[in-house]
Design the sequence.
């Protein structure tokens, strides 16, 4: 992907963790073979309500650091629960 800074609007990705994670997940989806289809559905961490997106590899990543498999199993817990 050439330049996905357009996702952040007028700011840059370093100041917007939600948009930075979305950009990472879009790139991951393309690497997973999604081609021109992009899953932009936003999930929320059940513990802290942080934004999360599909990586294309069966995992949702969240801005808090949590990771949840698409079947609902938590692979990396939310720091709020540790």
Sequence:
């Amino acid at each position: 992907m050439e330049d996905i800074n357009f996702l952040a609007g007028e700011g840059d990705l370093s100041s917007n963790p939600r948009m930075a994670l979305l950009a990472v997940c879009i790139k991951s989806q393309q690497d997973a073979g999604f081609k021109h289809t992009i899953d932009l559905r936003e999930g929320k961490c059940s513990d802290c309500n942080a934004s999360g997106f599909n990586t294309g590899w069966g995992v949702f990543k969240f801005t808090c650091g949590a990771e949840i498999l698409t079947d609902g199993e938590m692979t990396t817990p939310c720091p709020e629960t540790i």
